[in-house]
Amino acid sequence: MLGYEVMASCPDIFCFVTTRHGGYSKGNYASFNCTPYVGDDDECVRRNQEKLLSLLPQQPHTLVIPYQTHGTESLVIDSTYLNADDNERHARLQGIDSLITSEPGCCLCISTADCIPILLHDSKNGVVAAVHAGWRGTVNRILARTLQRMNLLYGTTGKDVKACIGPGISLPAFEVGEEVYEAFRENGFPTDYIAEWKPDTHKHHIDLWAANRMQLTDFGIPDEQIESAGICTYTRYEEFFSARRLGIRSGRILSGIMKLSTP
């Protein structure tokens, strides 16, 4: 597990990102895959989750891992969710790519293997969020939508937010087809800033880190309150899962954030 310096001064929260190492899964899931939706052995996932929980500074009431679909839907983890039975919770987590909560003891998790995980903390209003931003989520501004929903529900403003952009595929590794490049251009992203034509691959390459950082700064979050891991999962696939390297049926790293319960 890795942490983030920008969050180190926030004693009321804990956040992390897992690596591939230290778990029980085999093959393309080896070894610390905690995500239950990707075809891994259920018992291995259960043991990995138990190990993850043992590493947290406080046992969470619930470990929330949504079934992501590269959309823009967010779910607020509130008393309605917490009071629901297991079947209802499972149903509510389908098609969710962003989680928000002000409830302590809820560990919000996003699963990625090249897509970009972003963790958010609004210190003034006591709100945390976890966002899954692949290229489809990024081009449809899931991060901006999440921040806007936090503003609507809790009064979140940029100056009170700290943000972590986790490990994901980098511009040099993320070559795309023309339809993806055009989608970013048509949705108003400055392609001279977030894209680059590579003569050696004869492809455009997209900088998902930059495209998401733009959404953070556009919301008014100061640069010094944004930390990027700067880790390319495609390049460092032996340490972090990469779907482009291993295929879709492979493990996922988990990025999590939790408000700690006060004693």
Question: Overview of this structure, please?
Answer:
With 263 residues, the chain is α+β, with helices and mostly antiparallel strands. Helices cover 27% and strands 23% of the residues. The strands form three sheets. It has a six-stranded mixed sheet with strand order 3-4-7-6-8-12. Strands 1-13-5-2 form a four-stranded mixed sheet, with no helix packed on it.
- The helix/strand series, from N terminus to C terminus, equals EHEEHHEEEEHHEEHHEEHEHE
- DSSP strand (E) fraction? 15-25%
Regarding quaternary structure, what we see is single chain
Shape: globular
**Sequence of strands across the biggest β-sheet:** 3-4-7-6-8-12
What is the helix fraction of residues, given as a range? Answer: 25-40%
Poorly predicted runs of 5 or more residues? none
- Compute the average pLDDT: 97
* Radius of gyration, whole Å: 18 Å
Give a quick account of the main beta sheet: strands, pairing sense, barrel closure: 6 strands, mixed
Tally of alpha and pi helices: 9
What class do helices, strands and sheet pairing give? alpha+beta
Number of strands: 13
Distance between the termini: 25 Å
